[in-house]
Write a structure and sequence with these properties.
It is a single chain. 69% of the residues lie in helices and 0% in strands. The chain contains seven helices and no strands. α4 packs across α5 and α6 packs across α7. The radius of gyration is 28 Å and the shape is rod-shaped. The model has no long low-confidence stretch (mean pLDDT 79).
């Protein structure tokens, strides 16, 4: 059984209005989506001030046993490993955002390897 498709005839004015409406609707949707996007989210932008890494490492370095329990390395071993691989894992800062420092990358890697 074949289905026949209806063909609607529109005059030029109605077609132009329909096309303009579609373009305006599409533009509005795109604008609404762009409004909520961030290149860097404000929370991440302030990670140096409010981030856990800077506060946590400072507290853990005061207690050697807790540091070793958390990272499975002593403070001295952590510093040695960081000095050995720090230059190879250092990323370049850009105009748009700052890279994650090697100490933080190493801390995340060691902590995730434990899980």
């Amino acid at each position: 059984m074949r289905m026949r498709h209806a063909v609607y005839k529109m005059d030029g004015k109605r077609m132009l209005l329909t096309a303009a409406f579609c373009v305006a609707l599409n533009h509005r949707r795109k604008r609404r989506l762009r409004r909520h996007r961030f290149w860097i989210h404000p929370i991440i932008r302030n990670r140096d001030i409010h981030g856990d890494y800077n506060h946590l490492i400072a507290e853990l370095r005061k207690d050697a046993q807790l540091f070793k329990k958390y990272f499975r390395l002593t403070v001295e071993q952590f510093d040695i490993v960081l000095s050995m691989i720090g230059s190879s894992i250092q990323l370049q800062n850009t105009l748009c955002r700052c890279s994650i420092e090697p100490g933080q990358q190493l801390a995340v890697c060691l902590r995730q390897a434990e899980l």
